[in-house]
Amino acid sequence: MRFGFLALLWLFVLACIRVIRSDLRTSGQPRIAVPPPARRRGKGPGGGSPAPRQAPGTPTHLLVTEGGLTGTRIGLTGAPVLIGRANDSTLVLEDDYASTRHARISLADGRWVVEDLGSTNGTYLGQRKLDGPVPMDVGVPLRIGKTALELR
Asked: Hey, which residues does 151 pair with through a beta bridge?
């Protein structure tokens, strides 16, 4: 019985070390930052040349509609948006139901696509639980724990 307890204790210690190592490996990745908006320079009160026009219905930002960060806007520049509890995420969630690296929103073939990164509690687009990369539509809520986001 002593050896069984000792073996169980070592299995627990090894499982803890495995989790710590995986967290340390992912925390060293470079931060995906959203660049600041370009400043207008040029002649007259309006500044330089106008921003390029986008097709109607093309999303320009992500808006947090529910959760602790309600009202937060993230501009969509073409760079991937990483969402999770990690400090180097683009959108850092302080939510017990969010994973360290929970989801990624990226541009693929001209459409914004969301992908769950192996989170524990899952990522939901509308009522659907994600099981792979899924294209996002404007106004459809993306739920990660207690936080909801929408493309606008």
From this structure: 62
List pLDDT tens digits, range 20-51. Answer: 887 776 554 444 444 444 444 444 444 444 44
Q: In the β-sheet with 103-108, what is the strand arrangement from edge to edge?
A: 91-92, 81-84, 103-108, 111-116, 134-135
Q: Give every CB contact of residue 109 below 8 A, 6+ residues apart in sequence.
A: none
Question: Which string of b and e fits 29-62 if b means at least 16 CB within 10 Å?
Answer: eeeeebeeeeeeeeeeeeeeeeeeeeeeeebeeb
How far is 78 from 51, CA to CA, in rounded Å? 15
pTM exceeding 0.85: no
Euclidean distance between the first and the last CA atom of the chain, given in angstroms as a whole number? 61
CA angle (22, 124, 94) in 5-degree steps: 55
The structure tokens listed for 92 are: 């850092």
* E strands present in 4-118: 61-66, 73-75, 81-84, 91-92, 103-108, 111-116
